[in-house]
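Quick one, tokens below. Sequence please?
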């Protein structure tokens, strides 16, 4: 295990003091209004905002699960291109729509298109997925990494960082979270570049890194990209990048639409560093020692090879990613509860009362998170993977409804609500089947469900929702549909894509 001295001091004393001091500083200059607490007074710089976007989907502990699921490294590179396109779509088409409609939550957008029943249903679906899936995934990933790489107690560590995150959010609100996230992304970017450069320059080590890189290169060259994996990654990426509540909330905190658009291009530039550069060595390490457990690999690799300074930097990066994920969870869930339920039920709510409800909600969410820590044990990988599958299924529903919603002005609410209920029933049935009856083929229905893996089922749910919404509704096309037909692609994105293709081509060449 790693001995933490200076690192422990930074994590448990210096880091919390910085976070709380920053939140106090940002909150004492003016009275805390709902606009300031939930939307940072719509005064966030485009560069800082673009960096903070990345913590929602790309720099998060549960992203480790995608690597552990065995995805092709080529797919990881292609995901860099997919996410770049999605960030472009976010800035070019979607953020202007959110701004035009003056929504507070993503569920409010669904109400404008599908009606109030769909708003409540989708909001509840997102809240439950945040609490029951994304939070547990983050806790499990954090528990695994803390117990594997350090001598710290996972329960105490998770409890400590949950409390610290909730305190600085309660005090400072979204503005503090955005600034802290931007700092985290910059630090993680520097560490990942440093780690990758160090790794590929090693020649004489205990594990002979040059040999295992050479042995893994042909596997990289021969790896095939599954079509269903490519489509499924695009579907869940569309949810995380274009319709996640924290993305909506942050995008509405920009000074204006042009600033928000520029922020999406910052995300395009920075997102490939942690996703592509860090994923490559991680994939190679796990692939070469595939006969060993991930815990064994991490312990022996980091303890036996990685220098102490780099060890500390990696641990700090993981904690930063963890706290940013907790912050996203608290912020987005609190906003959904406050605006989709409390505000709609009590319409004459005062500005000060909204802030109070948001803060109380974070405290309640903190208590729920603390109760879930014992469930998130380091040996909970099976549950970890099943929850990732369920996350994919939910993303298929949200993405399908968002795509049709962006292309339409209004859709029949009753029909849409029935489709929403039916698709939700199907994914719950599939999840229960995976959790308890994975090898049970006794009934025809169970046999049909087990015939599809989670990637294929994600595509099936997505196609079902889009087809049902399209064919069972009389749709009045509008919003961004006409804008897409008339718009021309920006030169910036046309210049960005060849850069990614060049990166992929480089690794293709060295792997021959």
């Amino acid at each position: 295990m790693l001995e933490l001295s200076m690192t422990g001091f930074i994590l448990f004393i210096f880091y919390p003091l910085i976070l709380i001091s920053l939140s106090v500083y940002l909150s004492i200059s003016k009275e805390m209004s709902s606009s300031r607490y939930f939307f940072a007074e719509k005064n966030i710089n485009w560069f800082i905002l673009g960096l903070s976007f990345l913590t929602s989907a790309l720099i998060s502990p549960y992203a480790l699960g995608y690597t552990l699921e065995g995805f092709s490294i080529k797919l990881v590179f292609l995901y860099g291109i997919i996410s770049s396109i999605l960030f472009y779509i976010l800035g070019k088409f979607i953020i202007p729509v959110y701004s035009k409609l003056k929504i507070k939550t993503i569920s409010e957008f669904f109400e404008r298109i599908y009606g109030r029943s769909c708003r409540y249903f989708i909001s509840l679906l997102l809240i439950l997925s945040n609490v029951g899936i994304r939070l547990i995934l983050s806790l499990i990933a954090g528990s695994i990494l803390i117990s594997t790489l350090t001598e710290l107690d996972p329960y105490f560590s998770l409890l400590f960082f949950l409390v610290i995150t909730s305190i600085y959010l309660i005090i400072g609100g979204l503005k503090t979270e955005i600034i802290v996230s931007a700092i985290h992304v910059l630090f993680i970017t520097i560490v990942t570049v440093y780690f990758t450069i160090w790794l590929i320059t090693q020649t004489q080590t205990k594990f002979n890194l040059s040999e295992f890189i050479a042995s893994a290169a042909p596997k990289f060259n021969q790896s095939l990209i599954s079509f269903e994996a490519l489509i499924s990654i695009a579907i869940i990426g569309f949810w995380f990048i274009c319709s996640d509540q924290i993305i909506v909330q942050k995008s509405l905190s920009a000074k204006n639409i042009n600033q928000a658009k520029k922020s999406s291009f910052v995300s395009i530039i920075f997102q490939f560093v942690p996703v592509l550069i860090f994923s490559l060595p991680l994939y190679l390490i796990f692939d070469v020692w595939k006969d060993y457990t991930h815990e064994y690999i991490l312990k022996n690799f980091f303890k036996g090879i990685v220098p102490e300074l780099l060890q500390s930097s990696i641990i700090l990066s993981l904690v930063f990613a963890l706290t940013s994920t907790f912050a996203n969870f608290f912020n987005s869930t609190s906003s959904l509860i406050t605006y989709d339920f409390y505000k709609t039920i009590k319409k004459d709510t005062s500005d000060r009362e909204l802030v109070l409800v948001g803060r109380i909600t974070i405290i309640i969410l903190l208590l729920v998170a603390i109760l879930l820590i014992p469930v998130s044990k380091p040996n909970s990988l099976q549950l970890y993977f099943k929850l990732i599958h369920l996350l994919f299924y939910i993303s298929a529903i949200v993405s399908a409804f968002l795509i049709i919603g962006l292309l339409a002005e209004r859709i029949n609410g009753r029909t849409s609500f029935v489709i929403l209920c039916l698709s939700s029933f199907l994914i719950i049935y599939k999840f229960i089947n995976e959790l308890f009856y994975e090898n049970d083929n006794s009934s025809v229905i169970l046999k049909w469900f087990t015939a599809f893996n989670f990637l294929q089922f994600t595509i099936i749910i997505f196609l079902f929702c889009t087809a049902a919404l399209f064919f069972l509704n009389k749709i009045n096309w509008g919003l961004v549909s006409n804008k897409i037909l008339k718009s021309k692609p920006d030169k910036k994105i046309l210049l960005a894509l060849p850069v990614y293709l060049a990166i992929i081509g480089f690794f293709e060449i060295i792997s021959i």
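DSSP finds 22 helices and two strands in the chain. The chain has a mean pLDDT of 78.
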